[in-house]
Design goal:
It comes from Plasmopara halstedii. By secondary structure, the chain is α+β, with helices and mostly antiparallel strands. It is 52% helix and 15% strand. The longest helix is centred in the middle third of the chain and has 37 residues.
Length: 389
């Protein structure tokens, strides 16, 4: 009880001391003792709450759209290039040009027949896209092209190359397949057909001209043009192979023309023997018969001996022909290796001639006619052409 009363008295004194401003502080010993006594009370006082400034809220990440989360589509330049390429592939197609007739073509050589043909080229195409018709035999100044002369031409349209360029066709008419002398040429824009994907044939009249001649009118050409689905890559590659054969034929025709000119120059040198043969017909005929018998006998000997030897050599070539050829040059009579070499050379020439014949122009024209028949059928359209978008 005494302790409680003492504490109450000390509390009253402390309150009076704090309330009186004129009250002087007591010695340090008293203050230290009083502070130790007040410690339990101070400990019971509530701790002031310090409010911390709220941290700025983090922005919520933007959720990507469902299209971007799909596994089939990716962002970035590669995806953009891929999408552009896919869209261009869907825009690829085939430009069909059907050559019908030509009117009022000039006759370049009155002494020769004129067999005109038409070459159509797609400008700014990479690789170069072009095609030619077959010659219109005895067409003259007013030729006509039919299905048998392969008058329907196809040009591949590559949208990735031509999307920012105008679509223009160049028409060139030549007088003869071998001479390739230009009659006239012209250009025709078909941008509206390509942009609108017109599948219905549109008729055009192409007015031909030639810069080398003062008279600009070189006749006119009537054609039909439309747009269709692209040809599959395999058949496009086969078409390029056919064009290489066309280039080969043009080179062969040029060589034949040069050979003919050379033979004409040589024949002028032998004009006197020819005049002698014309004036002595009986003697020349007798000499021709003698030379014919000699040539036939030589050919018979060659067929009788060389051809069987060539067959045997071809069948058993890996086993003995190489050693025999090597030893025969040193031990056998001279005529045997010469005969074998001549036989091998003639075999090479015959295979070369056979290859030229099987890939000649008339054979290719017949195969192209059959191919056009197949392409126009329902099954052919599904097999040769890609599905349109």
């Amino acid at each position: 009880m005494t302790r409680k009363s003492n504490r109450r008295s000390q509390r009253k004194e402390a309150t009076t001391t704090h309330s009186d401003p004129t009250h002087t502080a007591e010695p340090s010993s008293d203050s230290s003792s009083s502070s130790s006594e007040f410690a339990p009370e101070v400990r019971n006082l509530p701790i002031p709450i310090v409010l911390k400034p709220a941290s700025p809220s983090k922005p919520t990440p933007k959720q990507p759209s469902p299209l971007l989360l799909s596994p089939t589509k990716k962002n970035g330049p590669e995806a953009t290039i891929r999408q552009i390429a896919e869209s261009n592939d869907t825009m690829n197609g085939t430009i069909h040009v059907k050559v019908l007739t030509a009117r009022n073509l000039p006759m370049l050589d009155f002494g020769k027949r004129q067999d005109p043909f038409v070459m159509v080229q797609l400008n700014n195409s990479v690789p170069k896209s072009w095609a030619t018709t077959d010659p219109s035999f005895h067409g003259g100044a007013n030729p006509e092209w039919t299905e048998r002369s392969n008058n329907e031409l196809e040009l591949f349209y590559n949208a990735s190359v031509m999307h920012d360029k105008g679509t223009t066709l160049t028409f060139e008419v030549y007088s003869d397949e071998s001479g390739d002398e230009l009659i006239g040429s012209a250009q025709q824009s078909i941008s509206s057909i390509v942009e609108n994907r017109l599948t219905k044939p549109t008729a055009f009249t192409i007015h031909l001209s030639d810069e080398k001649h003062s008279n600009g009118n070189r006749g006119e050409l009537n054609v039909e043009i439309w747009f269709g689905p692209p040809v599959r890559k395999v058949f496009r590659a086969a078409g390029r192979a056919f064009k290489l054969l066309d280039a080969r034929d043009a080179m062969v025709a040029m060589l034949c023309s040069m050979t003919t000119s050379a033979c004409g120059a040589v024949s002028d040198r032998f004009q006197l023997p020819m005049d002698f043969a014309k004036s002595h017909r009986k003697l020349s005929m007798a000499l021709a018969v003698v030379f014919g018998f000699v040539a036939a006998a030589a050919l018979t000997m060659f067929v009788a001996f060389a051809v069987p030897a060539l067959i045997v050599a071809f069948i058993t070539f890996p086993f003995w022909i190489i050693p025999v050829l090597v030893t025969s040059f040193f031990t056998a009579p001279l005529w045997l290796p010469i005969l074998l070499l001549i036989g091998l050379f003639l075999l090479f020439i015959s295979s070369f001639v056979f290859g030229l014949g099987i890939t000649s122009g008339p054979v290719r024209r017949k195969s192209a006619f059959i191919l056009n028949k197949i392409k126009h059928s329902e099954i052919g359209k599904r097999v040769i052409y890609e599905k349109s978008a």
